[in-house]
Write a structure and sequence with these properties.
By secondary structure, this protein is α/β, with parallel strands linked by helices. It has a single domain, classed as Dihydrofolate Reductase, subunit A (3-Layer(aba) Sandwich). The protein has 4 helices and 10 strands, in the order ββαβαββαβαββββ. The strands form 3 sheets. The protein has a 4-stranded mixed β-sheet with strand order 1-7-10-9, with no helix packed on it. It starts with a strand and ends in a 12-residue tail after the last strand.
Length: 178
């Protein structure tokens, strides 16, 4: 996962707005990260929000939208497919199609895949702003999820980015995708 968040831990305002994110963020590794993944897995709210952007930033990377509703009118040039099921089933179906390294985004989707033990790497870019309420990046977990700090970088705009690896534990196993 590669996500931006307010300093108080929200990935979006309660209505899904991202207006607290910088308009012109300096390069902070997202393009390189995106180039390294095979596909994207998003929740429906994330997809609906992103498809409203003026530009589709994901090229021909397949985007799998977790939803019970059909996908209508995807952006020009986008490869979009609806999927449903629990995270383990979704990961297995993608792996069977030769898709291993996925980028998971969307609050609920991130939380479900994390609880299922399917997130291996977490990159969080904190924006120096407190917004007070919104969609949290994380929610309740059944047990502690140990992380190993990999790196932290600071950018001239004040963004602070930290990278973590999710540690495998005997009860969680190593179900993470590469």
């Amino acid at each position: 996962m590669f996500v931006g968040t307010s300093l108080d831990g929200f990935i979006a305002r309660p209505d899904g707005a991202l207006d607290f994110l910088p308009d012109e963020p300096e390069p902070h590794g997202f393009e390189e990260f995106l180039a390294s993944v095979d596909a994207l897995v998003w929740g429906r709210r994330t997809y609906d929000f992103v498809r409203g952007f003026d530009t589709w930033h994901y090229g021909e990377k397949p985007v799998f939208v977790l939803s019970s509703r059909d996908i209508d009118d995807p952006p020009a040039g986008a490869i979009v497919e609806r999927m449903s099921g629990d995270p383990i089933e979704i990961a297995a179906a993608l792996e069977a199609r030769g898709i291993g390294h996925i980028y998971v985004d969307g609050g609920r989707t991130i939380r479900q895949f994390l609880r299922a033990g399917l997130i291996q790497r977490i990159v969080i870019t904190r924006v120096p702003v407190l917004i007070g309420s919104g969609i949290p990046i994380f929610g309740p977990v059944d047990d502690d999820i140990p992380l190993t700090h990999v790196d932290t970088r600071q950018f001239p705009s004040g963004l602070v980015q930290s990278e973590y690896e999710v540690a495998s534990t005997p009860d969680r196993g190593s179900r993470s995708l590469p």
